[in-house]
Amino acid sequence: MKSILENRPALKEEVEKIAEVAGYLWTNGWAERNGGNITVNITDLVDDDIRQMPAITEPIAIGEKLPHLRGCYFFCKGTGKRMRDLARRPMDNGSIIRILDDCEHYEIIADNPVMPTSELPSHLLVHDKQVETGSGYKATLHTHPIELVAMSHHRPFLKKDVLTRLLWSMIPETKAFCPLGLGIVPYELPGSVKLAEGTLNALADYDVVLWEKHGVFAKGTDIMDAFDQVDVLSKSAKIYIDSRAMGYEPEGMSDEQMKEMTRAFHLPK
Ligand SMILES: [Zn+2]
């Protein structure tokens, strides 16, 4: 069977980027079994032939009405699929969906009827907000970075911007490359409406949010951007934990050094 990616270099490149990131999630130990999700808005890469492509499933209810996603297209990781498999065979472990005109249903158009992640409604809720606000963000990522999840088990770290300040202070680049810091979403049942709402609220002020005792959710201009922000935060978390393992509380950059970074790199905070 012909793949939708054939003779579409821009779309192919985007899906290859998703596969590359899925491989990083697995090799980092952040994606055990079928853990984690990726959803990318590929509407800008869709041509007229794709718009005419017949669906390969019946319409499927989203469970939400998402008025800004009418006619949008997404690549979604498949439910129960593993990141390590997505890395090698993205179109067998994910699919491309079209949001229907009622904004309440979608259909799969390619390559195979791989049902999207059960977290699709919460990912689409975030995408709906990005389109509404014209943010330019196209990718959402959920994964389980070990050190950041470990830090989310310590109550004092969950106060607003305590972890942001700590992680920024471990290495200057973290502030430069994750300039909005790390938001906190209190524990809620995975897949619940409360978790989705808490995430949406926190993403108004941050690009990456930490789900207490679970993982992170990140938005980015593309999937690499979302991954990079989680990666730099995770690097800082490792430096903090290594310092503690060597028996001391790391000094961290001073307030003045942090302010200097803000000025030099024209950072928002
Ligand atoms: Zn998870």
UniProtKB/TrEMBL annotation:
Enzyme class comes to: lyase
- Cytoplasm among keywords: no
- Protein keywords: Lyase, Metal-binding
Question: Where does it sit, as one GO cellular component term?
Answer: cytosol
Domain named Class II aldolase/adducin N-terminal is located at: 16-241
What is the top-level taxon of the source organism? Bacteria
Q: What is its EC number?
A: 4.1.2.19
Gene Ontology MF: a single term:
rhamnulose-1-phosphate aldolase activity
> Do you know which Gene3D superfamilies this protein is assigned to?
Class II aldolase/adducin N-terminal domain (3.40.225.10)
Q: Matching PANTHER family, A to Z?
A: 3-OXO-TETRONATE 4-PHOSPHATE DECARBOXYLASE-RELATED, FUCULOSE PHOSPHATE ALDOLASE
Q: What is this protein called?
A: Rhamnulose-1-phosphate aldolase
From which source organism is this entry?
Hallella mizrahii
